[in-house]
C-alpha cells in the first residue's frame, strides 16, 4: 500500500501555506508522492467547468485545498457578501469535483478567526459552530465553517475522508507583507525592514502585551503532510504551538528586530487597540497524536523569514 | 416613484406547495390589493438549481417582489438519509434566487426558514436572535445550515446593496395541498393519511414514536396572511417567527386524537416506540410577531384540522402522497 502512487493536488499552492507544504515535502520526500501546486492562473475555482478541467488534467488521488478569497480586516468588513459567496462557490466546486473524480482524501484549511466571537478559552475543535463569528468577517467565517459541514456530508454519504485543519497565526516566506491587508507578523517584518533602511524608530501598535500563538509555515507544512497521510477523523484538528509557547506582541517585535539586527528604538502607540489580550487555542488533540513533534524555535523561524524577506524584497507581496 | 397604480408583480417560488397555496388562499380571500399581480411558480416554470433557468424565469415574469419558498424538503427520515444533498441543493437554489433577484433589481425578497434549523442544545423558548447560536439537530444538519445561510446572505445583500431581503420562521405548517406521503411528509399530514388508511382497513392507528414530543402547529392559510403582511410591512433584516403562542403547543398524541376526531375515526391509537421521535421540544417565541400584530387571530386548530381532513378526503386521488 505504501508504494501506491499518490497525486496530490494543492489549490492555492503558491501562497504562504502552500509554499510551507512545498518546503516540507522537499525536506522529506516520499518516492510515491507527486505534488502539483496550483495557482489562480491554472484555474478559476469559482467556475465548476474550470475546476473539472483541472481535475481532468491532473487526475489527483488527494487534494489539499488552500485556495480562498482572503483579506485583512478592512477588506472583509467592506465586502462580507462577496467573501461569503466566492468562498462558498470555490469550496463547493473543489469538494464536489473531488468526489466526482474519486478523490478519497481532501484536507481543507480553516482558521481560528472563524470561531465564535463570544466564547471561553482555550478554544478547541468541538467549538467551531457554537455561536456567531465576529461580525467583521462573518462572510468569510461562515463560508469556511460550511467546509466542515460539507466534509461531514460527503463522509457520511460517500465514505470519503474529507477533513480540515485549523492553524493559528501562520507566518513565513511568501506571506502577504502588505501593511494594510497582512497579518501581525508579516506587518512587523515589513515595518522593521523599512525602519532599518530609513534609520527610524519602530512604532508598534498597542501596548505590546497581547499574546498570540504563532506557527511557522514550514512546521505547518510538515503537519499538513502528516494530516494528509495519517489523520482519519472528520472533525478538524487545530495545528499550533501550545499555550506555553504563546508570545506577546512585544516579544514578537523584539525577535523580528533581532532577525534584522535592528537596534533602533521601540515606540508603543497605545492609542491603537490591542485587540483581544489572548485567543488561546488548545493543541491537545495534536499532542495526543504527535507528542514528540518539535516546532522550529520561534527566534530561528522569525530570523529565517526576515532573511527571506530581505533577499526577496522586490518580488514579495507588499 | 411610488404610485398606487404601478403594477407590483409578486413571484412566489415553490408556489404550488403547502405554504404557496396558503398564500394563494389568503390573496384570493381578502389580501389582494389593486395593481398587484401574483404569480405562483412551480418547478415546471424553471429549475432553480440551474442559474440560467432561474434567470429565464425572472426574465419571463419580471417580478418586483419575491416570496421564496422553493426548497428541497423532507421529513425526519428523508433528511437523515441524505444530508449532503439537502445541504447542497438548497444552497444552490437559495443563491440562485437571491442573486437573480438582486440582478433584476428586486428590492424585497421574503424567504422561508423553519424552527427545525435552530440550535439543538438551547434554552426555550427560542427566538429570532438565536438562529446561529450552536449546531442544529444532527438529523437534518444539511437542510438546517442551508437555510441558515439565507439569513447570512440577506445580511450581505442588505449591507452591501441596500436591499430589503428578509425571512420568516414558521413552526409546523399544515393544511390543504401538503405532502401526505408517509415517508417524506411531516407529522400532521402523515397522521391524516394514516387515519384515512386505517379507517378504510378497519384497523387502529399506529403513531410513530412515543407521541410525547410537543409542537406548535400553524395553519397554512394563517401563515399565508402573515407572509403577505411581512412582504408589505416588515422592514427588518432579522427573521420573524410566525407561529401560534407557546400556550397553544400540542403533543403528537393530542394531534393524533384531534385528527381522529376530525375524521370520525374510532379504531384506537397504538404508539410504535421503535421509531425515532425527533426533537422533543422546539418551543418558539412569537413575542416579536405579537408586538407588530397584537390582534392577529389564528384559526382554531380543531377547525383548521377539520378543513384539512375534509380537503384530503375530497382530493384523495390527486393529493401528493
Automatic annotation (TrEMBL), chain A:
Gene3D superfamilies associated with the record: NAD(P)-binding Rossmann-like Domain, UDP-galactose 4-epimerase, domain 1
GO molecular function: GDP-L-fucose synthase activity; isomerase activity
Keyword Ion transport: no
CDD domains (alphabetical): GDP_FS_SDR_e
Keywords: Isomerase, NADP, Oxidoreductase
GO terms, biological process: 'de novo' GDP-L-fucose biosynthetic process
Keyword NADP: yes
Residue span(s) of domain NAD-dependent epimerase/dehydratase: 8-242
Pfam family, one: Epimerase
EC class of the enzyme, as a word: oxidoreductase
Biological pathway: Nucleotide-sugar biosynthesis; GDP-L-fucose biosynthesis via de novo pathway; GDP-L-fucose from GDP-alpha-D-mannose: step 2/2
Domain of life assignment: Eukaryota
EC id: 1.1.1.271
Function comment: Catalyzes the two-step NADP-dependent conversion of GDP-4-dehydro-6-deoxy-D-mannose to GDP-fucose, involving an epimerase and a reductase reaction.
UniProt record similarity statement: Belongs to the NAD(P)-dependent epimerase/dehydratase family. Fucose synthase subfamily.
Name of the protein described by the UniProt record: GDP-L-fucose synthase
Organism: Phallusia mammillata
Amino acid at each position: 500500500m505504501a508504494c501506491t502512487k499518490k497525486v496530490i493536488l494543492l489549490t492555492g499552492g503558491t501562497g504562504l501555506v502552500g509554499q510551507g507544504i512545498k518546503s516540507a515535502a522537499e525536506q522529506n520526500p516520499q518516492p510515491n508522492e507527486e505534488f502539483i501546486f496550483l495557482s489562480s492562473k491554472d484555474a478559476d475555482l469559482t467556475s465548476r467547468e474550470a475546476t473539472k478541467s483541472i481535475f481532468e488534467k491532473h487526475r489527483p488521488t488527494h487534494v489539499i485545498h488552500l485556495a480562498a478569497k482572503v483579506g485583512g480586516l478592512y477588506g472583509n468588513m467592506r465586502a462580507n457578501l462577496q467573501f461569503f459567496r466566492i468562498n462558498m462557490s470555490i469550496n463547493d466546486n473543489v469538494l464536489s469535483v473531488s468526489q466526482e473524480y474519486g478523490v478519497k482524501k481532501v484536507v481543507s484549511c480553516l482558521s481560528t478567526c472563524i470561531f465564535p466571537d463570544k466564547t471561553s478559552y482555550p478554544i478547541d475543535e468541538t467549538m467551531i459552530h457554537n455561536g456567531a463569528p465576529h461580525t467583521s468577517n462573518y462572510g468569510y467565517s461562515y463560508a469556511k465553517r460550511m467546509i466542515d459541514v460539507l466534509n461531514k456530508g460527503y463522509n457520511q454519504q460517500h465514505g470519503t475522508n474529507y477533513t480540515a485543519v485549523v492553524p493559528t497565526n501562520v507566518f513565513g516566506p511568501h506571506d502577504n507583507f502588505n501593511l494594510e491587508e497582512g497579518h501581525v507578523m508579516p506587518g512587523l517584518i515589513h515595518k522593521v525592514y523599512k525602519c532599518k533602511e530609513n534609520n527610524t524608530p519602530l512604532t508598534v501598535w498597542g501596548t505590546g502585551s497581547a499574546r498570540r500563538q504563532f506557527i511557522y509555515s514550514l512546521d505547518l507544512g510538515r503537519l499538513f503532510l502528516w494530516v494528509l497521510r495519517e489523520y482519519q477523523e472528520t472533525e478538524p484538528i487545530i495545528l499550533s504551538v501550545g499555550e506555553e509557547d504563546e508570545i506577546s506582541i512585544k516579544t514578537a517585535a523584539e525577535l523580528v528586530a533581532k532577525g534584522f539586527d535592528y537596534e533602533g528604538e521601540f515606540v508603543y502607540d497605545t492609542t491603537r487597540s490591542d485587540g483581544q489580550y489572548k485567543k488561546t487555542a488548545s493543541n491537545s488533540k495534536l499532542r495526543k497524536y504527535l507528542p514528540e513533534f518539535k516546532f522550529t524555535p520561534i527566534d530561528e523561524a522569525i530570523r529565517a523569514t526576515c532573511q527571506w524577506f530581505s533577499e526577496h524584497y522586490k518580488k514579495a507581496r507588499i | 416613484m411610488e404610485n398606487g397604480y404601478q403594477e407590483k408583480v409578486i413571484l412566489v417560488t415553490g408556489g404550488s406547495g403547502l405554504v404557496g397555496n396558503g398564500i394563494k388562499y389568503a390573496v384570493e380571500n381578502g389580501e389582494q390589493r389593486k395593481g398587484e399581480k401574483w404569480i405562483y411558480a412551480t418547478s415546471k416554470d424553471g429549475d432553480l438549481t440551474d442559474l440560467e433557468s432561474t434567470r429565464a424565469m425572472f426574465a419571463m415574469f419580471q417580478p418586483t417582489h419575491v416570496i421564496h419558498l422553493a426548497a428541497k424538503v423532507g421529513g425526519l427520515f428523508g433528511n437523515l438519509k441524505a444530508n449532503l444533498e439537502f445541504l447542497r441543493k438548497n444552497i444552490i437554489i437559495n443563491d440562485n434566487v437571491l442573486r437573480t433577484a438582486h440582478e433584476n433589481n428586486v428590492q424585497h425578497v421574503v424567504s422561508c426558514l423553519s424552527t427545525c434549523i435552530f440550535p439543538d442544545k438551547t434554552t426555550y423558548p427560542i427566538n429570532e436572535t438565536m438562529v446561529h447560536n450552536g449546531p442544529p439537530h444532527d438529523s437534518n444538519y444539511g437542510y438546517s445550515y442551508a437555510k441558515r445561510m439565507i439569513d447570512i446572505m440577506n445580511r450581505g445583500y442588505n449591507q452591501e446593496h441596500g436591499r430589503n431581503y428578509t425571512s420568516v420562521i414558521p413552526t409546523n405548517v399544515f393544511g390543504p395541498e401538503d405532502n401526505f406521503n408517509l415517508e417524506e411528509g411531516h407529522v400532521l399530514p402523515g397522521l391524516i393519511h394514516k387515519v384515512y388508511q386505517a379507517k378504510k382497513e378497519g384497523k387502529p392507528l399506529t403513531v410513530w414514536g412515543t407521541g410525547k414530543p410537543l409542537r406548535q402547529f400553524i395553519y397554512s392559510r394563517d401563515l399565508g396572511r402573515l407572509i403577505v403582511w411581512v412582504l408589505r410591512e416588515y422592514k427588518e433584516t432579522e427573521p420573524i417567527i410566525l407561529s401560534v403562542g407557546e400556550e397553544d403547543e400540542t403533543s403528537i398524541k393530542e394531534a393524533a386524537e384531534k385528527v381522529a376526531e376530525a375524521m370520525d375515526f374510532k379504531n384506537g391509537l397504538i404508539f410504535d416506540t421503535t421509531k425515532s421521535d425527533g426533537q422533543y421540544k422546539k418551543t418558539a417565541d412569537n413575542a416579536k410577531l405579537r408586538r407588530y400584530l397584537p390582534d392577529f387571530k389564528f384559526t382554531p386548530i380543531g377547525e383548521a384540522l377539520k378543513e384539512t381532513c375534509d380537503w384530503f378526503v375530497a382530493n384523495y386521488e390527486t393529493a401528493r402522497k
